[in-house]
Design a protein that fits this description.
Rossmann fold, about 35% helix, binds pyridoxal-5'-phosphate, binds zinc ion
């Protein structure tokens, strides 16, 4: 199979254990060398000179290695060809600073595209912008849950409300838009479940063929919730880390755009929109504390990055929210490293009902621990029993039905509040990242009908009387 890409670029062998590498940095930084913005994608992996001005709306100047800082041309690649470090997007910070404003954002659409100035836009062509209405989800006060947890100013960022039911719609919006701009005609992903649904849905709307790779034994709602969109669902006999390794090879061999592999620099930036929305919905202030579920650790690092960018562009006043992470005990490599006070993530073999968070070898784990340390946050883990309790507590108090990842967030939040790691007075935002209808299995055997009756008034009266 040829490695040639339609743009003349070539795919790079992954070279990393799981293809999940991406970095976080504290704010936008000026590029040292510029990528072309003249609508053509240059052949070859390295750019050599500054070229034209960015056309309106384009925000990205190139890619840069997070480790050695070498810059590379824009293309479907995520690993530095010099040192195999993770690539990240380099923004045209001067251009962005010249146009971004609270007013411009407020005048934008009710989707994550209202933050287009701060997201990786590769093309000025509107046909390259995929939009299924993702993002701008509710941020709601959660007083009843707060009262149960001993928190006086608790908020829920409700990402169950995205088109395919999870925050993955955000990252996929960026990945497929980048794929379009780069001329890729097939989209794929390695998924713990939610990404499969998000890629399938957005690919359907974009009219692109999709291949989604998942562990074979995922929840039914995740499998059917991807297949229904007409995607090719590839059920792999292995866990997520096996799936991800396979996908790194497929990306090399097939020339497809893999949302979270070779399109990862663009994909990962989509999670910043959660941070942008939290700030705007709090009237351009930042909360004291944010609690975020961790699988690869990307969402956590990108929400932190978003807060830094808002400060850099003068959209919020300086404030450094504490950022805390939430894992399941059955897959807790990041929490375990945090507890050891180490940045060295020891891979685990996942065994938890929180399947969406079951990444045993999380490449952004290192960066997630750093963010928690630097901001004064914490990273915890909870057993499966508490995950179910967390799902029920959130649903019963706030009317939000979250999947297991939401249960992980709420259960960790409870422990943080009880142990004083989060103070009663802090303004806390809990990120609820996926919809409960996708993981009904988790509740099976725990809850069910309250009364079972025959269709007669007598029988009902008897049942209600207990
Ligand atoms: C519902 C849900 N929440 C959180 C996460 C964690 O995301 P990340 O890999 O960015 O840490 C995932 C990842 O699949 C997810 O599906
Ligand atoms: Zn490098």
């Amino acid at each position: 199979m040829s490695e040639d890409h339609p743009c003349g670029l070539q795919f790079l062998s992954d070279g990393l254990p799981d293809g999940e590498a991406v970095g976080v940095f504290g704010g936008l930084q000026p590029a040292t060398r510029r990528a072309p913005h003249d609508g053509t994608m240059r052949t070859g992996r390295h750019m050599t000179a500054a070229t034209t001005e960015a056309p309106s709306g384009v925000t990205v100047e190139g890619l840069r290695c997070r480790e050695c800082r070498e810059q590379e041309a824009i293309g479907p690649s995520h690993v530095c060809s010099f040192c195999f470090g993770p690539l990240e997007v380099v923004y045209d910070t001067a251009g962005i600073a010249g146009r971004v404003s609270r007013e411009r954002i407020a005048a934008g659409p009710a989707s994550l595209w209202r933050y287009a100035d701060l997201l990786p836009v590769l093309s000025a062509d509107p046909a390259h912008r995929i939009d299924l209405g993702t993002g701008f989800t509710p941020l709601r006060p959660a007083p009843r849950l707060g009262a149960r947890l001993g928190l006086d100013d608790l908020w829920i960022k409700d990402d169950t409300r995205n088109p395919s039911g999870s925050f993955k719609d955000r990252v996929v919006t960026m990945a497929i838009s980048a794929a379009r701009a780069l001329g890729l005609d097939t989209i794929a992903c390695a998924s713990t479940g939610n990404l499969a649904g998000a890629v399938s849905a957005h690919a359907a709307q974009a009219g692109m063929p999709a291949y989604v790779f998942i562990p074979r034994d995922l929840e039914r709602g995740k499998i059917l919730g991807a297949a229904v969109y007409g995607a090719n669902v590839v059920a792999v006999d292995g866990n997520y880390d096996d799936v991800n390794r396979l996908c790194a090879e497929v990306a090399d061999a097939r020339g497809w755009g893999f949302a979270n592999v070779n399109l990862r620099p663009f994909y990962a930036e989509g999670s910043k929109s959660i941070g942008f929305e939290i700030a705007e919905q709090l009237d351009w202030t930042l909360p004291d504390h944010v609690v975020i579920p961790i699988a690869s650790g990307s969402m956590l690092t990108k929400i932190h990055k978003a807060f830094g960018e808002l400060q850099d562009f003068g959209l919020v006043d300086d404030a450094t929210p504490r950022i805390s992470g939430a894992q399941a005990t059955g897959c807790s490599p990041v929490a375990e490293a945090f507890e050891r006070d180490s940045l060295d993530i020891r891979p685990q073999k996942p065994d938890t009902i929180a399947r969406s968070l079951a990444i045993g070898n999380p490449a952004d784990g290192y960066y997630a621990v750093k963010v928690a340390n630097e901001t004064g946050g914490t990273i915890g883990h909870v057993p499966d029993r508490e995950i179910v309790d967390g799902m029920r507590l959130l649903a019963e108090t706030e009317g939000v039905f979250a999947e297991t990842a939401g249960g992980v967030t709420v259960a960790n939040l409870k422990r943080f509040a009880e142990s004083g790691r989060i103070g009663r007075d802090e303004r806390v935002v809990a990120v609820i990242s996926g919809n409960g209808y996708k993981t009904l299995e988790a509740l099976e055997g725990h809850i069910g009908p309250t009364f079972e009756v025959t269709p007669t008034l007598d029988d009902l009266d008897r049942a209600l009387a207990g």
